[in-house]
Please model this.
Amino acid sequence: MPQTRRGIRPRSKQSASCGQKPRIDGLLDDAVWAGAAVTGDFWQRDPVEGSATESTEVRVLYDQDSIYFGVRCNDSQPRLIRATELRRDDTLENDDSFSLLLDTFLDHRNAKLFRTNPLGTQYDALITEEGNDLNKEWDEIWSSEARDRRQGLDRRNPDPLHQPAGPATRSRTGG
Model:
């Protein structure tokens, strides 16, 4: 598997088809998520770059129209979670956040970036030229919700498939 410039291996995740859309309410307690495998070996940027110091679980589902990411960000000190920004497309650098990069062309050079904070505030951008170009003006239509829990946060982020995601193909493979 190729490595990025920082030596971090791209993650690949098996997704599951769902017969009905999951609720977008910031919780992961509905039965739709039961069929989704959980992945959790993640990398963090702050406070120290490297293997994540807190447990994070991601579930991936899709239907004919959308792909859904159910994210549980556990935190051993939830009272210290930072969540202040409510403006869309703020970089959320002053808040705790979860970022999802979708390499829809499978070229390890370009990606769609989706980021949310504990309030469900959205930031998205297109990354091209191996991260040398960041188009912050790009705005995808997507939904996100977050709920504060004693252990951390639950988030749900659907990414509509109606937007051209990559090369024309019937495959649902992505990175």
